[in-house]
Structure formats: C-alpha cells, structure tokens
Amino acid sequence: MKWLLTHLRQRSFWINPAALMLGALVTVLALYVFNPSILELIELKTYDLRFVSRGPLRPGPAVALAVIDEKSLNAEGRWPWPRSKVARLIDILSDDGAKVIGFDVTFSEPDANSQLALIDRLAAQLNARAVKDPSLHRFVTDSRQDADNDRALVNAIKRSKAAVVLGYFFHMDESTLEYRLDAGEIERRLRSIGRSKYPLTRQTGRRADEPPFLKAYAPQTNLEMFTDVATASGYFSLQSDQDGVLRWMPLAIQGGDDLFPSLGMVCVWHYLDRPSLIVEVGEHGVEGIRVGDRFVPTDEAGRLLINYLGPPKTFPHFSVTDILNGRVQKGALKDRIVLVGATAIATYDVKNTPFTPVYPGLEVHATVIDNILTQSFMARPEWARVFDVLAIVGMSTLTGVALTRLGPVNGVLFTAGLFALYIFLARWLFVSARLWLNMVYPLMALVIVYTALTVYRYLTEQRERKKIKGTFKQYVNEHVVEEMIKDPTRLRLGGEEKVLTVLFCDLEGFTTYSERYSPHEMTEMLSEYYDRVTEQVFLHRGTLKEYVGDELMAFFGAPLEAADHARLACAAALGMREQTRALAAAWAKIGRPRLRARTGINSGPMLVGNLGSKYRFAYGVLGDQVNLGSRLEGLNKVYGTEIIVGENTARLIEGAFRCRELDMVRVKGREQAVRIYELVSATGAELVPEHEKALWCYADALDAYRKGRWADALGLFRHALTLWPQDGPSVALGQRCQVFLENPPPEPWDAVFDQLFK
Prior knowledge:
The chain contains 24 helices and 27 strands. The protein is of the alpha/beta class. It has 4 domains: 2-34 and 381-467; 63-113 and 148-374, no CATH class; 486-685, Nucleotide cyclase, GGDEF domain (Alpha-Beta Plaits, 2-Layer Sandwich); 687-758, no CATH class. Strands 19, 20, 21, 22, 23, 24, 25, 26 and 27 form a 9-stranded mixed β-sheet that branches. Strands 1, 2, 3, 6, 7, 15 and 16 form a 7-stranded mixed β-sheet that branches. A hairpin with a 7-residue loop joins β17 (350-351) and β18. α1 (2-10) packs across α16 (440-472) and α18 runs antiparallel to α19. Residues 8-13 have low confidence and may be disordered.
C-alpha cells in the first residue's frame, strides 16, 4: 500500500478521474470489438434470463402437434411403427381438414415388415417350382400389396388433400458420418430434394464475395419413393450456440450449388398457398427471406433468432393414438399446420432452450412457424452495434461524472440505480419491441469505471488522511482529526474569513525563574504545565496554534465548523484555570515557584488557513480580532484578573457563563474602545457568598465611576475589597478613582481607559 501511494503521488499528473474513466472506456470498447468467448457466453445467459423474466406467450392458432408420446407408445407399440400406421395417420389428418402435414421424422430405410418377407419367400418358391396357377400368383401379388407398408404410405401421401412435407437433415461436415459418400451419391441425394430448393435468390446490395451461407456436406434424405410423391421436403437440422442452448434456426442451408429451406419454412410456404419465396442477400450477407408479402429477418448467415413463446406444451398437443382411434374432436385440426414428431422420453431430439434444458425439437419448428406467420421476431439489427457503443460511452461518462461529484454513499446509490435502470431498459425493449441489445458491455463499463474511481478515491483519500493527520495532529486532538477525515468537505485548507474565537494564555512572571532554575528544569516544568492546559484545549475541540516561550495560543471553530466556538473557548479557559491552580498547589508542596496564568479570549471575523510562504507555512489565524485577543490577555496585569473576554465573546456566551463587566478599554493599536469582561464561572456554579456580594458591589461602583462620582465609586470599590480582598479589579479601579479625585480627567470624558502598553 505504501508503495502504491508513493507511486500514485509520483504519477498524479496523469492519473486522475478523467484519465481513469477514459482508460476504462477504451478497455471496454476493445473488449466489445474482440468479444471474448467468456463475455459472449455471459451475454447469451442474460438473453435467456430476459425470456424467463418475460414469461410465456400465447401462440397463434395455425400450428398443432401430433405427438408420438408415452401414451401413444403404450397403445400402439414401440417406435418405429409400421408405415401403414403412419399412412392411416395421414388419411385421418387429411380427412379432418389439415392444410399442411409436416414430419419431424425421416423415412430413410425400407419398412422392416416380416409378413412381406414371408410373401416374398413364397413367391420365390413358386417361381422356383414353376407353379403356373394364375389364381395362386394373383393371391401372392394381392397379399404383397396389402403387406407393403411403404407402398401404403406412398399411396396415403398421394391421396392426401393436405400438403405433405417430409423432413430430412443435413450432415454439416464429413466427420458426422461413419462412412464416406462419393460425389455421385451426394449428387443423387441433392437431386432427390431438388424440387424443394429455394426458387430464387435476389441480390439487394453489392457484395465482393459469396454470401456467408451455412454450407452442408450431404443431406440424409427419405427414400426416393416417398420424396417423389411428397409435396415437398424441408430439413430439420438445428445448431446450438457454444453453451449448448438453441437460439437460432437456419432458414437457408447451401447444399451443392443450391439453397434449401427448413421444414418450418416449407410448411409456411404451402400453408400460405405457395406465394413468391425469395432469399434476399445484401451488402453484409443474408438480409432475410421474403414469403409473399411477409418478410423474415435473419442474420448475415440466414439464421432466424427464435422468439420462444414458453416452456414445452406451449403449443396444443394431440396424442397420435388419440388421433388414430378417433378420440380427437372432429375439425380440431382443420386448416392447420400439423407437425408430426416424437415427444416421448428417449425417443425425441432434446434441445436446450432459454426456457428449459429439456425441450422437444418438434416444438422448435412449431415456434419458428408461429414466428413467421405472426411476424413476431426477435431482432438484433445492425444499428444495435451503434447503440451498444453509445451505451458503453454513456454509462462510462455518466458514472465517471457522477462519482466525481457525489460522496461515497450517494455514489453507490447512483451507480446501483444506473445499473438497475439499464437492465430495466434492456428488458423493456426486449419485451415490448423484441430487441436484443447488449447488456454485458455497458454494465461492464459502468462497473469498471466505478471500481477504478472508487479505488482511486480510496488511495487519494488515504493520501489526504495522511496529509490531514500530518498537518493537524499537533494542533488538535485525535478525535477532531478523525472527524475531519470522515468529512473532508468540512475542512477548508487555504485562507478564508470566518468568525472564530481565539485564546491567549501566558504564565505570569515565569521568565524570571530562568535565573533560579536550569534550562532542563525550566523545560520540565513548562512541559508539565503545557500537558495539562493543552489537554483542556483538545478536550474542547480547540486548535493549538503554537507555544511561544511560556505563552500558548489556540483558536476554536476551525478547521472543523463549530457554531458554539465561544462557549468551547470559555469552557477550555475555565478548565485550564482549574488545572493551573491544581498544578500550583502541587508545586508549592515541592518548593517550586508560584504559578499563575493570564488568559485573554476574543471572538470575531479573522483569516484562517494555511498561512506562510512557499518555504514554510502553518495552519493559523490572523486579523484585528486576533490581535485584540492578545491585548486582552495583557490587560489581566492591569486588573489583577485571570481570564478576560472581549464584548463579542461575552455576547456569544450569554446565559452559559457568568461574566463581570470590568471596563471600557482602548487597547494599543486600536482607536475603537471595547468593553471587557472577566470570565468568573459557568452559569450555575456556586460562589462564596462574600465573592457574590463583592461582584454586585463592583457593578454599582463601576456605574458611579462612569458617571464621574469618584468619591462614591471609591467607597464602593473599597467596600467590595472588604468583602473579597483578592478582587484585583476593585483595587485597580479604586486607585484610578483616587487619582481622578486629585486630578479629574479633561472634559468631555468618555469613561474609556487607554492601554498604552502591551
């Protein structure tokens, strides 16, 4: 930490909040451009959470699912079923009015029928034995036709009033096959589905290279006997993201030189009565698929961002066994796209989606069909990248500017609020406008800027703490230093004018003791005295300015604001008087000299701050009111008092302390006279009755003195002394009355005493 603070000081000319904010911004923008996989993965997870927080939506009425579920397997036997049963399913769906029947299964191998194999062996035996019986041969031929399930399926497809769309899949690369296909076989397979390719590709913008279509190695097609009679074919190949979640559906895959549509796209095309079907390619790649007057936006590779509507069974499910056995209401599937596929456990292709990790692939195709028909698409447009960059810049700037103007608590609240606000905005746009805007990078920019500026603030505050402690630890007590560190805004370094209270305290005649005591003894006695009185200054939140010989100077109300600075100064003065008296009593017992201190206190506007020059400066106060405080301390010699306060201070402490008005004085260096008061005690403190009476007597005497009744005043001052012989002010003003009796002052007399010496 010490090294870091030193390094920070050395580099402070360029390490500042603006530089840190700019550095954080550049870092996040660089990460956004390169998009590390870990951050992309986090963004994908926030995308999924937006789906979950949005909740399920109701699908349109066009799609229904004929599912091979557990109920169907239990009733009809294990899958795969005889093709004759699939043929009967097509007949029932067609008769019920289904408009399109799409299969999420393949028929790539002949039906394994044991009866057909037996009939074929019987026919072979008849031929081998040269049996010429026509009726027997006709029986064998009719039996073969009745037992040929593949033929039954072909016939059902032919007579179906609904468009039958068969499903197939692509091997995207050679590694997915355990055997090698020659070019001729690949060409044959592509030719078999040639009727189902995209009829037209339209270039809407200039491109220097080929569009970035997904390219497949070879299709795994149905038997040609089925493909030839089916209305069309569409692939059901799916590709998951790096985290295994399926978010995109490729709507166009290139096989050979042609583009082929997905199962869902083909079903939609026939459902809409085969309008124009065009792949539109722009300057940056695929822009989308146009189906009649509908447009399906895609990414540059031709992939649709799937707008999932909810968890499994969001679409209506009809068990195949219920359909086969007439338990589905007549007309329930009329004018619908009916997708046939498996949903029974261990029989279907499980997909991981934003809503759930167990989702039937059949419902993925249903979702895509619904998205296209309802035109309800998730969008990640090209301008979203511009928005992302602006969001990164905006979040960084707002956070940086706010943190430089707010305190730690408000800074945390602002940052947390901005963090939550952006999440709310991104979710709101996702739900209401179906926009996918990046959430990770703008929030990362906010967090990095906040962290950098918080660390910077912590390190600089540590430096400021050290600076404050170094500046004030010798002036104020530790508690005051900690208060300044907690709230540096209360600290004002540098000169400013404030109303404060200053205190001067001097030991009476202490310098004369230097002849009797060694320097070591003088230092020891002075240190013991200063320990006690300084403790009182610190106890009352005063600031020690300096020790000059046997004089102490302190002030109250700075560097920490204190509205009751005058009260604190007077309380400290009384505490200092008690400590001085206690120390004097202790010294008297060990033969040390008499100890008596004189204190002057004054309040008023004065300049406070770090005062001095570039060579040396210290925290202190300057001004006329400071000088007056020093003069008040010296007036104690004239009046025989211990604590004198100026009229400003007396007015500020009224009610809290008992003060006696002493005189009107014009001190040396000032033309304006000032009332001076003796600080007697705190209000409520008990006095000796004689002392109490002497104070009242002095007040009457002072009134007579100011009216020029010298004899009356002298008598009252002498009476006060009989009550309290130690009363120095009565002695001083009594002597002045005696002088005026003999030599009256010139008229007009203003009752002001001129102090000619400091």
